[in-house]
Amino acid sequence: MLTPSGREIERGWEGGGLNSLSPSGRGLGRGGKEQQESCQILVLKILMLVALLGALICPHASRADDGTPGAQGKPDLVKQANAPVSSILQVRLQDTWQPEFAGTDGLGNVLTLSVTMPFPKYRLLPLPQLSLLTIPAAVTMPGGLTGFGDVRFLDIAVFPVGNTILWGVGPTFVFPTSSRPETGQGKWQVGPAAAVAFGPEKWLVGVLVQNPVSFAGDSERKDVNIMTVQPFVTYQLGNGWFIRSQPQIVINWKNGNQQLPLDIGFGRVFTIGGQNVNCFVEPFWNITHDGLAPKYGITFGISLLYPDFWQEHSRRDRKGMGE
Q1: Which CATH number fits domain 14-320: 2.60.40.1180, 3.40.1390.10, 2.40.160.40, 3.30.479.30?
Q2: Tens digit of pLDDT for each residue in 84-117?
Q3: For position 161, what pLDDT does the model report?
Q4: What is the DSSP pairing of strand 265-272 with strand 241-245?
Q5: Which of 127, 128, 142, 213 could form a disulfide with 157 if both were Cys (CB 3.0 to 4.6 A apart)?
């Protein structure tokens, strides 16, 4: 099952490998021609993302801290843009390329669309909420098979502690929406989630923990009880640039398998035509893992940021009421 960033195609480790590959090896027996076509599509997709990234962060683009009203180049915007769950509305597109796997030949790729939606106090609950919807739009297996993945939803109720510390708890859900058995777990899942973040000056440091547990679904698929621990660190370099690390540690409570990645990336928050944008590149390496897993990979990300979403929504509501 997909982690929030899509760095592991599946996390069940059925039959000694990832849940995306059944014990019979379904998804690995694709023909050479089909695999070659899939690889060509993936290469084209990566080249497009690289070209887009290069165009967006070029020095001719508006800087995130250029002082214009729409730029909102405050340090807080860089922090929010890189938080897994954020207090500003974001639309994120991420592509994770996995060129080599341990235990099998071939490469993988995961294209995800996610939306972070904050809810002010009393909008739904008497506490602020931070929500994250993750949609794995295209999961490509090492054998060339591509399909839709399992959708995830996370909702955290936030309890502020001082000016620089936040913590929260809430539920996390996984919905069996995959279009192919190999690209999902086939189980309805729900479980606890918790987050804490500390943001002094140029730093953002925190951790997000999720542990969905299956309670219904395909009776022929194995039950799921997997915890994901995602520490996150961002340091601002100035002028909208930053370095970041967001490894996702995976622990399968059913069989004791684990996966420990190491990553570090860089990016920039800036504006184009008044639109706030975040772009980053983040390579990762799985330094330890059990079963089938990508040896290494690289994630390309681009986000559209809307820090004034609720203020504009409130102004429209007041205008509609004739205030």
Answers
A1: 2.40.160.40
A2: 998 899 999 999 999 988 878 888 999 999 999 8
A3: 78
A4: antiparallel
A5: 127
Structure tokens given for 190: 């729900």
Q: Which of 9-23, 38-52, 126-140, 260-274 has the lowest mean pLDDT?
A: 9-23
Distances (CA, A) of 288 to 164, 244, 257, 263, 295: 33, 21, 10, 13, 9
Residue 323 banded pLDDT, cuts 50, 70, 90: low
Residues 230 and 251: their CA atoms lie apart, in Å, by 11
For tokens 């679904």, what's the residue? 217
Q: If DSSP codes are grouped into helix, strand and coil, which group holds residue 218? A: coil
Give me the residue spans of the domains in the chain: 14-320
Amino acid present at 283:
P
Mean residue pLDDT across the chain: 78
Q: Which of 308, 298, 234 is nearest to 268 (CA)?
A: 234
- C-alpha distances (whole Å) from 147 to each of 137, 177, 214, 232, 281 are 8, 10, 21, 29, 24
Please state the φ and ψ torsions of residue 273, each to the nearest 5 degrees: 60, 35
